[in-house]
Amino acid sequence: MKILILYFSGTGNTCFIAEKIRDELCRGNYDVQLSAVETFPPAKVDKFDVLILGYPVYACDMPLFLQDYVNELTLPRTQKAILFSTMGFYSANAFRKIGRRLIRKGMVPLHFAEVKMPGSDGLVFMGKESRYVMKVRSTNFNEAAMIKKAVAEIAGVVANLGGANGKRAEAKLPPVKWSGWIMGGLMSLIYKLVEKKMKRKFRADEQCIKCRLCERICPSRNIAVQEEVIFADRCFLCMRCINQCPTEAIQIGAKTQGKFRWKGPDGNYSPAKR
């Protein structure tokens, strides 16, 4: 059984969990490949028996970048899928919405795991010594119960697939959260309004050394480094550029100057090396 763990991670949360899942499955001697969506062609996804797909929740859905990726998939055979997501606040009916999207692409979603993580979109506005930031920095995410639970659940689903003896898998969707339709719609509207306002405020200040890292790692190819750093209008607020800038030169207006930068749960997330 060939397993593909495919993920999108703006600031490292989802990548951290994807690596934990890979390590757990490798201990079970499964044939596992781990890849970020930016480096894995959609045409090759169907070469695997099981897809484990991870992503952060934006506006109660997967990021637009990943939605476009899923839309490009062409699967000649039914493929089993396991989903996991990271979120900072509330996901509403995101899993159900995404599960139905995958079913239309020929997949069979079998399990959904959700992990609450520090919201990287809010951390960049917080002081480096603020109470919440200090709490986040002191957390040992390697021992986080919610992460361990999600990893164990996914490993269990994979183990059951291995012992299914050819039995046809049936799609499983989470139950509808009726309050989620209202909250999800409201949060989606708020997110779009905030996104429209915030992405206009991205800039690089005088600390910029023109290293072009932001240009290379931007998943939407929204950044161009010329005489000045130019931010276009394709940003979907993954916050990768502002958190990865080596001189903390990228700002959102004036409110992120000197504030905290999140490098993932282990402090070492580097999308440029993946």
Automatic annotation (TrEMBL):
It comes from the Bacteria. Residues 3-137 form the Flavodoxin-like domain. It holds the Pfam family Flavodoxin_3. SUPFAM superfamilies: 4Fe-4S ferredoxins, Flavoproteins. One of its GO terms (molecular function) is FMN binding. Keywords: Iron, Iron-sulfur, Metal-binding. Residues 198-228, 229-255 form the 4Fe-4S ferredoxin-type domain. InterPro entries: 4Fe4S_Fe-S-bd (IPR017896), 4Fe4S_Fe_S_CS (IPR017900), EFR1-like (IPR047964), Flavodoxin/NO_synth (IPR008254), Flavodoxin_CS (IPR001226), Flavoprotein-like_sf (IPR029039). NCBIfam families: ferrodoxin_EFR1. This is Flavodoxin signature. It comes from Lucifera butyrica.
